[in-house]
Design goal:
Elements lengths: L1 H15 L2 H23 L6 E3 L13 H16 L3 E5 L2 H9 L3 E8 L17 E8 L9
Parallel strand pairs: 1-2
Antiparallel strand pairs: 2-4, 3-4
């Protein structure tokens, strides 16, 4: 129930926020992410994509994200498929690296228009995100 309320709050915030800003961000993000995916997935057409991971503030630091990602890795290993994600904070990027993800590309959104936190800021450095991929070990190594 609490998670559903949080997601609903996020959706309302996005709708209430300037749709133009969201559209601009997505228009900037998509080509960067597509280029990074092409580079990182090396022609692989089938892969898992982790779209969104979040942890409530009071539940952080308990290993929940790591446990969930390890479960995704088990599933992907079974299917022999890579997993793609975009880390949106340096902290999350480090968590994923510890779990075996590799940074494929560092991307910057809103350069010149936003600060590192995503707030509007003329001349700002922009928001960094990291395209990352995890590859399963070949099936023979699991036996």
């Amino acid at each position: 129930m609490e998670v559903a309320r949080s997601v609903l709050s996020l959706l309302i915030y996005i709708l209430v926020s300037s749709l133009t800003t969201v559209q601009r961000m997505l228009a900037e993000f998509e080509p960067l992410a597509d280029k990074a995916k092409t580079k990182g997935l090396d022609g692989q057409k089938r892969f898992y994509y982790v779209f969104f991971v979040g942890t409530r503030v009071d539940a952080r630091g308990q290993g929940l994200c790591s446990a969930m990602m390890r479960r995704y890795q088990e599933i992907a290993s079974h299917d022999q498929l890579p997993i793609w994600l975009e880390a949106t904070t340096a902290k999350s990027m480090k968590i994923y690296e510890k779990l075996g993800w590799e940074v494929v590309e560092e991307m910057v959104l809103g350069k010149g228009a936003a600060n590192a936190d995503g707030n509007r800021c003329k001349g700002g450095e922009g928001v960094k995100i990291w395209g990352m991929v995890w590859w399963p070990k070949p099936a023979a190594e699991h036996s």
